[in-house]
Write a structure and sequence with these properties.
The protein is of the alpha+beta class and 230 residues long. It is 24% helix and 31% strand. It has a seven-stranded mixed β-sheet with strand order 5-4-3-2-1-12-13. A six-stranded mixed β-sheet has the order 7-6-8-9-10-11, with helices on one face.
Length: 230
């Protein structure tokens, strides 16, 4: 039995309202719950959609995010989603971290990623210009939703691989469209996704990580079948 099961959501960018984005998140969360995931990570700005190249939109109304807080508690799952945040008079890319049993998310600056441990209350972010020594020593995973286009993929892969190897921390990347991936603590690639709407999953066992690619339609079919059998 795995000690920790994690997932990255991958899908095409969508121009929708915050409420519609929340509904879409719930589809992925429901599918991840059927795979017994303890954590799911979404791409940057997932709750509002990536900017194009206009200024960042306002932060969403907190009430619109209540369904995600409820889903985190219902499924016993930590959820990391992207949204704009206002900090020190400046609007920046941020993350909302929904943890089981907590009624409102923890809002942080996105930085290079979110440092997480299997214990849901152990959360921090890696600053944008950090070299890695700022990593929380108690963290066992760096989750990043920072999006990269195809021409940026190689540079991003090399950077994350070096970070994983140098600081002995697993790295999970959620990306729009393609390129979501998981590296282990030695910087070895465990699994990488091509294009498609899917869940990239990782399972941590005593002997190391195992990864898989689950097309979302397959996950939802399994959910529908289980409801029919109930």
């Amino acid at each position: 039995m795995p000690a920790w099961t994690i997932a990255a959501a991958q899908y095409t960018t969508r121009d929708r309202s915050v409420a519609e984005h929340v509904t879409d998140h719930l589809r992925f969360i429901e599918a991840a719950s059927k795979l017994a995931c303890n954590l799911i990570v979404f791409p940057e700005m997932s709750l509002t959609g990536p900017e194009n190249p206009a200024p960042l939109p306002p932060a969403p109304d907190a009430k619109l995010l209540d369904p995600l807080s409820q889903a985190a508690t219902r499924h016993g799952m930590t959820i990391v989603a992207g949204l704009p945040v206002d900090m020190n008079g400046e609007r920046r890319k941020g993350v909302a971290i929904f943890t089981p049993g907590i009624s409102s998310p923890l809002i942080l600056h996105q930085g290079q990623g979110t440092c997480l441990a299997q214990q849901a209350d152990h959360v921090s972010t890696l600053p944008p210009e950090a070299e890695g020594h700022e990593l929380d020593p108690g963290a066992s995973l760096l989750a990043t939703g920072t999006c990269t286009h195809e021409f940026q993929q190689q540079q991003s892969v090399q950077q994350l691989q070096r970070l994983a190897h140098k600081y002995a921390i697993a790295v999970l990347k959620s990306n729009y469209g393609n390129g979501s991936a998981l590296w282990d603590e030695a910087g070895q690639l465990i699994v990488r996704a091509d294009s498609g709407e899917l869940l990239l999953t990782g399972r941590k066992y005593e002997g190391g990580w195992e990864g898989d690619i689950i097309p979302l339609r397959e996950s939802l079919c399994a959910i529908d079948e289980s409801r029919c059998d109930a």
